[in-house]
Amino acid sequence: MQGELRDGRIVVVGASLTGLRAAETLRSEGFGGSLTLIGEEPQPPYDRPPLSKQVLLGRVPADRTGLPRRREIDAEWRLGVRATGVDPYGKRVLLADGAGVPFDRLLIATGTRARPWPDPAEAALDGVFTLRTSDEAGRLAERLAAGPRRVLVIGAGFTGSEIASACRERGLEVTVAERGPAPLVGALGGTLGALAARLQRAHGVDLRCGVTVTSLEGNGRLTGARFSDGTRVEADVAVVALGAVRNTEWLAESGLAAGPRGVTCDAGCRAFDMYGIVTDDVFAAGDVARFPHPLFEYQLLSLEHWGNAVAQVEVAAHNMVNPGPRRRPHLSVPAFWSSQFGLNIKSVGVPTFSDQVVIAQGSLQEARLVAVYGYRGRVTAAVSVNQAKSLEHYERMIETAAPFPPGPGSPDQVGRMAPAPSDVPDPKVLSHGPTVALTGHLPDRRLTLVRPAR
């Protein structure tokens, strides 16, 4: 059983928000030993949400988004070097420069990266961007400030929609290509997706849904793109916003349950190995972690939320240095927010874990509302549009598994909408059912059992 750790060596791989908050919490918990933070990017930890908002609007330089330090952490920073593996027997993190960093406890907080355009030659065209890092945001903001004739945004999830909003606020012509039926539908379902589509078009976005970009064209420099419906658009900037890839490839030979869906861990953030055995010295937190949550039938959730990363890593850091009886679970209700096209969108719970939705307050017509999601007759999520003050009430409903649909909302409700199908896509990384599935082992991969020497 894991015991108390007050000295010794702790290594954190991932030097962004999650890594920084881990280090601060470890020191607050009384850990006085050696603390090392390893990060692939050369910059100290910075805040990512402003990159698709204030930075693209030119209001904040990309290099001015550094995260404030809540306390001194007395750590060794190994920045600009990539972790390439973990030696689970020698208990070392292996680095691209050939070094090895020993640990007594390890926290994996490597997060995600932007999913690249699938054709490397097209991705290399001048004018093709992704947006995840500070450097990427700085380069894109510089290009937008130069006044391109048209910007093509590929993907209308939250990041793509925020990019399109920033471009329109700058007065730029924007085309958005979305393979689904509406923007945000993958995260919020069809009801709010239809509202997002209406508002994007009202703000002058050339929104094309139900199509994919089949090719990016140009001779060294981007000139346009072709769509699956046979049409073409001219554009000198394209932003690829096709979601995120979890940074787990470096763990392929580690023996951990790590794969494309993330690093599987228990509710106390302890990582599983590939045989389904929980470890005592390796932890995971933030966007890269995949963890069970009792409010969502113990499904393994992977969340790319700022608030989840902070809450989860505080639990992880506490459990890394405290003995078993004092460990605690990560049970926070997920929450996130977005600002786009004059709307403030906030969410609590997991909207994709639903089969029905109802407008409990406000109205779609006024774009001021609270949509409440339910699954199997209980409330599982709520999303507010320009009405965030109401969410605390629905968060309590989620925590207490309140029945769905909820009772009458408030005096500002316009009419009474009957519950409708939530129309969320069948998610590939979350299944409605009690089945727990670890990642990191493929059925056709032969297992090599480690036996003690005789």
Structural class of the secondary elements? alpha/beta
CATH class of the largest domain: Alpha Beta
Poorly predicted sequence stretches spanning 5 or more consecutive residues: 427-438, 441-454
End-to-end Cα distance: 25 Å
Instruction: Using the coordinates shown, work out and report the CATH topology of the largest domain.
Output: FAD/NAD(P)-binding domain
CATH superfamily of the largest domain: FAD/NAD(P)-binding domain
Tally of separate domains: 3
| Amount of helix | 10-25%
Write the CATH architecture name of the largest domain: 3-Layer(bba) Sandwich
The chain-level mean pLDDT equals 91
Let me know the number of strands: 29
Q: Outline, from the CA principal axes?
A: globular
| Total of helices | 8
Identify the strand order in the major beta sheet.
3-2-1-7-21-20
Largest β-sheet summary: 6 strands, mixed
Strand proportion, as a percent range, falls in 25-35%
Kindly provide the radius of gyration, computed on alpha-carbon positions and rounded to a whole number of angstroms: 23 Å
